Amino acid sequence: MNGWQTLLKKEVLRFWKVSFQTVAAPVLTAVLYLLVFGHVLEGRVMVYDRISYTAFLIPGLVMMSMLQNAFANSSSSLVQSKIMGSLVFVLLTPLSHWAWFTAYVGASVLRGLLVGLGVFVVTLFFAVPDFAAPLWILVFGFLGCALMGTLGLIAGLWAEKFDQMAAFQNFLIMPLTFLSGVFYSVHSLPAFWQAVSHINPFFYMIDGFRYGFFGQSDVSPWISVGIVGAAWLAVSALAVHLLRIGYKIRN
């Protein structure tokens, strides 16, 4: 196997060995969100015509689970390797910074997609959303996981202990995710908060992903894919640069 393929396999096995925690637990969390919000707001909130609130909620929960787990995969792997001292064994290999980037982000994308698929399959018992544009579902699913996996890579390089990684996730990733329109349409917000929501790149991932199911969205999917793609290219350039200079991993 090539170097990046070996490292990718190692990263995939790392989360798959504890799949009950890394895959099954996020699925259960998403189902609990669906039970609570769907039960409370079903029949009281109508976002799109002829679409129930529960059906509207499912794509948002799927995407939210994918984003959070893609971020957690690469960030936790690097921080754990730093604390345990096992990162040195990867540093001893002649792997390039591109190999590191491909392996860590690739494993994050795979975990995110697996969690998203699990959430979607389980939530089918509650409502069956349409598939108006399946290609958009795949595009935004991949781009969203890749962007979050890359952000997780940057966070893992920066953080030296779990407290720092938790701060990155709790004060940046979680607020941006919950304020991206997972549980509501931004059109229901006042004008000021609609403008604020359009600054949040997570909003475009959720909105574009939801468009793939219903064929309706708050903004054009072409605008969303352009913004998400540009954001991924920007954070990828930063992540590759940090890996190339060995930021906080090489003395």
From TrEMBL:
Domain ABC transmembrane type-2: 17-246
Membrane protein topology class: Multi-pass membrane protein
Keywords in alphabetical order: Cell membrane, Membrane, Transmembrane, Transmembrane helix, Transport
Keyword Transferase: no
Coiled-coil ranges from the UniProt annotation: none
Membrane-spanning residues: 20-41, 53-71, 83-101, 108-129, 135-159, 171-193, 222-243
Keyword GTP-binding: no
Family annotation (Pfam families): ABC2_membrane
Localization annotation: Cell inner membrane; Membrane
Similarity remark: Belongs to the ABC-2 integral membrane protein family.
Name this protein carries in UniProt: Transport permease protein
